[in-house]
Amino acid sequence: MVIKKLTLNNFRNYEAETFTFSEGLNVLTGRNAQGKTNCAEAVFYLCTGASLRIRHDRQLIRHGEACARIGAEAVTRFGAVALEAAIFENKRELFLNGNKLARAADFVGNMNSVFFSPGELRLIQDGPDERRRFLNLSISQTSRAYCTALARYQRILDQRNNLLKERDVSLVRETLPVWDEQLSVYAARIVLNRRRYLRALSPLAADAHAYLTDGAEKLALSMDGEYPDDEEEIAARILEQLSAARERDLRLGFTSVGPHRDDIRITIDGADARGYASQGQARTAALSLKLAETEIFKMLAGEAPVLILDDVMSELDLPRRKKLLDRVKHIQCILTCTHAERVLYGAECNKIRIREGKIVL
């Protein structure tokens, strides 16, 4: 997959700008706070329907404007595709090849991307929310069924949690089994897909980590919890867990079991990376996950995603910079940095200089 053109209108600090990308390495360069990351964020948003940086879409609208519009033209193995998002204060409209979409799930996955920045250390060092978000965004780009199951699970989970806060306990006890039955169906689909995905991702991440560390460290990934490899059996197991936790959930006022509580265990040489990894080890582990993710897309989508590397080079030592550039030279990459000559070492690239939300020559 190759993104040919990106247009930004009233998006973040951009008034109106059009980027033309090449098939290989594209370098967005300029001083800090000029709009490099904003451009990279727009690409990721068009691929996933979400931003990694903010919680509310209205924050993407340029100050003083009513609407932001971002669009991209790409070539995939299925042919040309055009995506557009119009973002308003309290809503958004999504378009595929000029046609307005009724469901966000139909928007996700038409273009694929993998995003890595220094902030991705959260994957290793923070709580389970970050690792679940990683799984959800990654799997959703290659599985519309997963994206749909996730949305339906969340909707039912919200309704169950609201019910658990009701004062009429007898009504809650009478109604909960109905919600639990529905919740377990979508929970099983999520659990099964996550485990299959992680089984494929783990050896690829271990390989990437061995490459970046010259074999000095061993990275391993695993999902917590034990489940069978059959969707109906998983649903039955989760239904049992929901039933067993019912009284506890009533006391707590929220649902305490299910895939919304999942976590990935990440170890380096057998030690839990969250508690024992240094900053450098955590950074390399997170980068390994992202490089493995690009390989997963090749396997599942049949083509490489666009790899977005946001201000990554400044955080890596010289050997890892060169290894990273060599690893990504055969896929489209959008890389942001302040001084291209300090990190590229003569690599061929399409260099785009940005100043105050504008492309400059």
Draw up the topology in text.
Layout: E1 2-11, E2 14-20, E3 25-29, H1 36-48, E4 67-76, E5 79-88, E6 92-96, E7 99-100, E8 113-116, H2 122-125, H3 128-142, H4 144-164, H5 169-212, E9 219-223, H6 231-244, H7 246-252, E10 264-268, E11 271-272, H8 273-276, H9 279-301, E12 306-310, H10 318-327, E13 333-337, E14 350-355, E15 358-360
Parallel strand pairs: 3-13, 3-14, 8-12, 12-13
Antiparallel strand pairs: 1-2, 1-4, 4-5, 5-6, 6-7, 9-10, 10-11, 14-15
Helix pairs in contact: 3-4, 4-5, 5-6, 5-9
Q: Would you give an account of this structure?
A:
- The protein has 10 helices and 15 strands.
- It has helices at residues 36-48, 122-125, 128-142, 144-164, 169-212, 231-244, 246-252, 273-276, 279-301, 318-327; strands spanning 2-11, 14-20, 25-29, 67-76, 79-88, 92-96, 99-100, 113-116, 219-223, 264-268, 271-272, 306-310, 333-337, 350-355, 358-360.
- Strands 2-1-4-5-6-7 form a 6-stranded antiparallel beta sheet, with helices on one face.
- The longest helix has 44 residues, at 169-212.
- It is globular and about 70 Å long.
- The protein starts with a strand and ends with a strand.
